Amino acid sequence: MKYIDEFNDPDLARRLLDEIRATVTRPWALMEVCGGQTHSIIRHGIDQLLPDEVELIHGPGCPVCVTPLDVIDKALEIAARPDVIFCSFGDMLRVPGTDRDLFRVKGEGGDVRVVYSPLDALELARRHPDRQVVFFAIGFETTAPANAMAVHQARRLALDNFSLLVSHVRVPPAIEAIMTAPSCRVQGFLAAGHVCSVMGTAEYPELAERHRVPLVVTGFEPLDILEGIRRAVHQLERGEHRLENAYPRAVREQGNPAALRMIEEVFEVADRNWRGIGPIPASGWRLTDAFRAYDAEHRFDVTGIRTEEPAVCRAGEILQGLIKPTQCEAFGKACTPRTPLGATMVSNEGACAAYYLYRRMTDTPAQQGSRIPREEMNPVG
């Protein structure tokens, strides 16, 4: 089937669902890696339309959600300093740190500003040479080129009052960690199309072959997701395990060469800690030695912060696909968008936020069947 050009075609949606139902003969568990895909799935009820044999597991595809607690606390400490203008995308402002969030810091007098691009923060540094301007550089591979460009421009303009607090993470090592965890139930992946539009698909065939799982690069519209599920189910039923690109209108095998060159010049691969999951080797980026002067973590000497996650929040299990949000005892009670215990309830791409926003307040039969006793959990890392 050709890739989807029309997004509002109920007849095509029906045909895709009919083909999935006609193909599936046994239970299969697929993980969508991207938080944007999770929100589309829950908003449109895609998981409820699928046959009972096909379960969708929500993965760690929300960059806000996986930004570790110690990095949030570093951001809070830097943002509270009187000589700093701290810049961030809006969805980071309510992510809870150990005892407060960026909104609280702003309310207490910190100069915290919402920007729409790291280049906006760069312009603030140019206009305020007497202030240190810090941009909170989080995200998967998708946001890395723009953040790299900002640092590259800062060096070209000799702006020594600009820096990044970097918490970039990479998808392929996360898939590796999920597949090697003892508790893994995932049998196939819907890979994030926007990540692959930047990075290409070169890292995925080897992952699919080594772990014997289908990897289908998928977009974000409902028909994109249904097409990705259709292809993954076909592979599983045939005993196949390979990469498929179901999003060719945006994704090429080689990715975006200009973006890749910028990333390679400014960043280098590093181990990263994922909030609620733990350390994953080679799963992130840090600034190279050539750009280390623009690293806010070192500039403000906040490298020694150590934290512990609150025990009541089960966001880590949700991010690993071990439970659904409704299986957390605090969901919709102690933890709501107004009183979030974890980032998965705050972020625009968080699974808990999706369930709360679209009123998925109780388990569906499929979720009840997938429940794993907490004492049997074996988290990644």
UniProtKB/TrEMBL annotation:
Cell wall biogenesis/degradation keyword on record: no
UniProt keyword list: Iron, Metal-binding
Single GO MF descriptor: carbon monoxide binding
This protein's name: Hydrogenase expression/formation protein HypD
Biological processes per GO annotation: protein maturation
Domain of life: Bacteria
InterPro entries found in the cross-reference section: Hyd_form_HypD, HypD_1, HypD_2_sf
Organism the protein comes from: Streptomyces echinatus
Family: Belongs to the HypD family.
Pfam families assigned: HypD
